[in-house]
Queue: 2 jobs
Job 1
Amino acid sequence: MADGRHLKLLRKLKPPKPAFGGWVRTEIDGVIRGWAVNGDDPGARLRIEVRVDNEPLATVTADRYDAKVEALGHGDGRYAFEVMTPPALRDGAPHRFEARVLDGPGYVLKVKQDVFTFSPSLQPPEINVFEASWTGSRGEVRGRFHSPPRLELWADGNRASEPLDVVWDLKKDRAFFSLRLDPRRMAEIEGGALEFVAPGMAEAGLKGGRFALPSALRARRVGDGRVVVDMPGGGPLYGALQCRIRIGGGDPIFTSPVRFERQRAVLALPEEVAVDGADVRIAIDGFEPERLRARIEPAPPSVTRNADLRHWEHGGPAHWRLGPTARAEPGFHRAPALLRLGAEGHFARIEVAGTGGAERLLSQAVRPSGGAQADELALLARSSEPAVCRLRVLDRSGSQAASLNVRLPGGWTWVYSEALAALGPQMTEGVVDLEATAESGGPGPLVVDVAGLRLGVSGLRVAGAPMFGEAELTKAARAAPGRELVLNGDLSRWPGGLRFRAAGERLETAAGWHVLSREVAAPLHALALTSETDTALAVAGEGFGRIEVRLDEDGVSALKYGRVRFTAFTPDAARRLLAQSAAAAPRHTVIDRVRVIRRSAGRSSAGESRVVDHVVATVAGRLLLTRDPHEFEFEVRPPTAAVVDLTEPERAQSGEYYLAFEFRSAFAAALSKVSLMSGALRSSAPPPTFLQLEDRNIAAQAGEVRGLEAWVAPAVVATPATDAPARATMNWSWSRADLGSVEVVVCVHNAPEQTLACLRSLSTSTEVPHTVHVIDDGSEPDTAERVRAFVAERPWMRLTRHEANLGYTASADEGVRAATSEWVALLNSDLVLTRGWLEGLLDASTSAPDVAFVGPVSNAASYQSVPDIHGPDGRFAVNALPAGWDAEDMAAAVRRASQHAFPQVPLLNGFCTLMRRSVVLELGGFNVTAFPAGYGEENDLCARATKAGHKLVVADHVYVHHVKSASFGSERRDELAKAGSRALKALHPDVDFGALTASFRDSPPLVHLRDAVRREISGAVSRGAVS
Amino acid sequence: MRIVFVLPGRGGGGGSHSVVQESIGLRRMGLDVALATTRGSYAGFQLNYPELDRSLPVPLFQDAQELSAVLAGADLAVATTAPSANLLAEALTAMEERRPRAGYYIQDYEPLFFTPGTPEWTAARASYTVLTDALLMAKTDWLCRLVQANHGRPVVKVSPSIDHETYHPDLRERGPGVTISAMIRPRTPRRAPRRTVRVLNRLAAQLPAEHALISFGCEASELEREGLMLDSRVEHGGVLSRRQVAAVLRSSDLFLDLSDYQAFGRTGLEGMACGCVPVLPLFGGGDEYARHRENAYVVDTRDDDAILSVVSDFVGDSAETRSQMRSSAMATALAYSVERAAFSEYEAFRRFLGKGGRIAPATVAEPAEAEAPVAEAAPEEPSPAAEESASVTA
């Protein structure tokens, strides 16, 4: 820049009389240049204000080196400054300017010509950076210039370099530059945003060519021996960077030259080198920048979860949401096209209604944590007919951030396609969305098979790692049972000291352990309490306080069931922490809540960013602590994660997870040995399974058809045990009376356990359409309430309650009369019904015309008893079940032993009778007056029925277990029986009950049955099946 | 007294097989049984049942009016499908006198075949009540209960049957590998073709090489059209005749019927008759004969893992255990004879035709003579019961 005029001017200068000295001028490149010095203090760099038309343009420090100023004898010559005039001042009009020293008393620099006029055609240079790396950069300068400008580097508003040594390639109105940078020098520059400018541009607030160097290193293992190394945070960085990679701390175990393309290098390493946690460093020109260090992580290769659609839940692929008209089912085919890409053959067959326009197939909310982790979209799909698929990433506002269009040729040909998705680090939440449009454009169903769709790290195809799905396996493994999810739960690491005070802040104490105080006025004191065996964190506070322990994110987000254990107490040491404060130590310390929380970035209603805590599960509440350590243990079952919705980003599964202990009032507590162990799921909560009826017509109506309810059950319907008929549980929820179903009447008086057992067995053993009418005949409140609750849950049962005990006969009569069905089964409340009992009774009812009543056989039902009618004492037997048998075993033995003869008998025991209602009404119902408490009423009814020509039948293939006389004690029973017998004889003097009972007893099919059942039992004994 | 089964269409399904072979069985027992079918599909019907013409009369009809003519003089007209029940109701209404009583031999719960709300669905639902005073019968308890519960009509249970001539075992020693077969019907969604292909492909990926996988039931081109690609390891046999199916079942150890449900599951039972253990859907009437892990595997077919798990159990079992299950399957299947089924139907007819009703022997006993169209056969006198019902419904 030196010219003759300038030198002449300098020679005329005399040593400055005032302490301040300097000049300013404009030059033809549109730059105001000058220098200023304080003669009394040559070491000072003066601050200069440049004003144009009396308005301040820039404030600069006169510290640039100018050889001519040095030649004039001014110290080191670093007294010059430059300010580029902005475009607004290049308007062809004259402008007056001046430069004033700010540090002095208004000293104005000398100027020869204080007016400049610049043409609008002369604009400041426009600088673009094409490529930037630690070792060099390339770019261009556009504009009108006689010679290319000097370039210098600025970082965060500060000049970071002297003018650089640039190689120029001049074109018309354009100059391309390239330059080398020293990685050491680059490592020294603080700040992320770097800028190439011409001198004076930055001072005038003009933008130069901006770029950023990668500020960090990330290394992730994506397959056996495969490591993807990223240098995130930089850009633009499109070129290649040659460097060396070194793996393994101070004593490297592996070094290799490596070339980064687009900020990424994919390494194929020996497996023993590519281990999680190994130290990775990058050496550029022999220099290892400190910030380019990382440890190898086992990172998920895909931001999208279940990217290979291998995992299915009830209704669809796990983690994906189906489009509104889409229906999906799993497919599997080891097609070579899939195997080549590392896929195993899983795919989703998705069918959409096909309106002719774009139809959404699948979508998933994702959290790409910065652009470097999610920079590629990939799709592997095929279709029935030619179609175009569009895979998009939408940001939170629904705007498209990246997309991939793939044409599927139809004919079920697999197509793989991938595209870069430069999302940028600001993209932290979004949705991956797949749409399809049939090329035919017409309406009609379109079927697309999707074998993989992924937003994730690029370069996997190059690396040969599985492209889809590995993340899920990793995740599943992390939530595997028996895995500890609390990080530093034993408090073994204390990186920040052993004593803390948090006032209105959140403070880390032991590693991963935070204490939170909401108000400055209510600080928390925390302390490491070490004993011989373990370490505890003691915390005390005067008001609200919270202790948070960091959890393993992946493990907790996949957790379905776990057990939380911790030791807590209120030691004196913790109480003493409060001694200095005004508050007295608390009398009691209560942990108000123990919760699993997820912390994520969210937005307030006003749209401002804030941290959002979401309660994942409440583990326990109100725990009173004692001075002695107590070990607490609780179950934790986070609810099944909902599919993430864009409108509810807080529900996303990612974020930081903590186990939080909350205190609401003054407390002094200590925690140690904190553990959250993932556990195996209980059978009551099976893992989600994909269940689907393939035929849509069936799926559309199965839930509506009576008897097919189980077909749409959300869980797998278990197959019955080996020896039972393989039958789906028929949940005949209720049946309409006009369908000719059966009403079951159960008369209840106290004995709640037996009654409920009876009703339960009725529910589980009855497979034909029926309704149940329970008549509670003045039971005690406990029984009444339990029966009421039981009936309330079963829509096919109803309850009638007598506030006072009216007696069995009145209840039975009421039950039969109140029924609307032709057949009524009247039951005692102390029965155990067995499978198929009612069908069996109905079978027997059709065995002959005019059958009015049917009864089963039992263990305690006078002449219907098996194997014995009488006990050793001569009384009617109450046959015990053989040891090891239950009622069903006995029922099975009776079925095997029975001749299915359905013998007609003169009487029936009233414990369990199927009655033709019209016959009961025809006979005038039960005789309530003569038999108020039962014991004889059924014989009376049977006698009347027989006289009227109706038949009574024993269903000799049905066994119903009779617990026997739950309602009355044994003595009272005998009394009632005697009274009943007297009344019966009085009412039926014409009937020889002795003869009738003898014929009943000797009925050949029943004799045979009793013998055969005895043989069944003894056979089982000899086989060792029973004892 | 004459009985006419009304079986429109070309047949070929499990339900048609039952009706045809049991009609023949009844005829063989000496009853006057005819099988009326539609003229338009008769050629296909003959192809499916070439033996039929020699065994019993097959009068033809095309509409309700013609069916009325066919039924003249019959005592019992038995519909066999929902459309035939509706057609039969129409034909009976049109008959002025000598109207036979009606029966419906229910083969499946046909509303499940159609989209709810469509005319076909409505007609299928109506079929169970459209015939007034009719004998409804079905061959599984499940079907009886289902119709009873949803339509309020009692359904009589009759015995199912299989054709032991065609489906018989081969008791010769087998190699160590397990052969697994499955039928694929790409255009019958309730037979779950996609699930079947998916499971076969997963088995192809999992099973050691000594085990074989066979599929049949459709042309390979049809599979391809539907996008159902089978693993190269699965040997696809295409469309097979009944004899060929029996041969495949005889060579198989395990037969996969992965349908959404089976009203009966004829192929499963036929497989058992051939000495092959079936995997059957839990939903439906398969419990008529299947005992889980005893002579069959019964699973919730909605769940692939449940299916794969029992297959892997079977393959992993000792040869002895497998052989035990196969024996148990064969023993079960042997109990289902055409004669037993025909007899149970005869019993149902006898009870239904009721007091004083009798079932006359066949008027044409010889197969050669049986070819004469039934409509032209000398009509029997109507039973009092038939007269009564005619007067009620007239």
Job 2
Amino acid sequence: MAELKLEVSDGPSGTIIIDAAGHLDAHTFEQMEKQINALFESEKYKIIAKLDKLEYISSAGCGVFIQFVQEAQENDGNLVLLNATQNVVEVFDLLGLSSLFPMASSMDEAVGLFE
Amino acid sequence: MTSPASPSAPSEFRQELEIASDATLLQQVRTAVGAFVDRTPLPPGERNKVVLAVDEAVANIIEHGYEDAPDGWIRIDLCCRPDALSICIRDQGKRFDPSRVVDPDIETHVRQGKNHGLGIFLMRTIMDVVDYNFEHEAENRLTLIKYFKGASDGGAET
């Protein structure tokens, strides 16, 4: 069974890091959805999704990020994707999302996207 | 879940998968489809995209066709033809014709925070053919075709 493991920690400059490992698909997307919802309910809108260990993403997974990025930005935050794997970048490219989503290849770059 | 691959002609081989309509089985489908694609002439760069297209189709059947009830069946027939990879996905869930779904405007999608409706768009973007039929008034039949490079009916890499 494909799994998604999420580890949440405090990041630099008031950000929250969600470190995602495994597969973000139609079976596991609700985990990510619940996690981001919980952060928003705590008024934490500066989120860095660390994706270097995310092996697979489908439209269901992309949909979670789509669902929340606007609200994060409207609350002076953002939802930044850090170190997305080639597989993940490819899916974002196929959907035409790469130009619409903040993506970073280093933590410094990710933090800079909140300024 | 799978039957062993069997050749029906020297330049053609097939494999059949069957799963219950259970989203926890999507990874098994992806693994099996990926292994089959690895045996075809499709270049490595296309492998993950084809796996994704099948995953999207099966996920849609589970969610929309069977409304997440895990007691339905989904049969996936994989066929490597001389000119193409042909994947036929059958189910007995609610009738659903993907050709009736309009491609989304992605910017609007993001602006509105819509988290659904992208799977069919991905299938159409990745595969050369996405064809739907409702067979015998009882069975949905979705055919996905990816032509090999240089095949006369297509062959353009996406």
